[in-house]
Every structure is written in C-alpha cells, then in structure tokens.
Amino acid sequence: MKLLFTTIAAVVLVGCGESQPPEPPTAKAPD
Prior knowledge:
By secondary structure, the protein is an all-alpha fold. The protein has one helix and no strands.
C-alpha cells in the first residue's frame, strides 16, 4: 500500500512539474 501511495505521489509531482514551469512569477499571489 505504501508503494502505491508513493507511486501516485511521484506521478502527481512529475505531472505538475511537466505542466507548469518551476515557480512562475505570474502565478504567485501578491503580498
């Protein structure tokens, strides 16, 4: 079960990294 959770987490992280550039300045909320 732990392996499944880890795999899902890895896929989600990779998916987010692929779909968005790292730290887009326009996506950050203004202070």
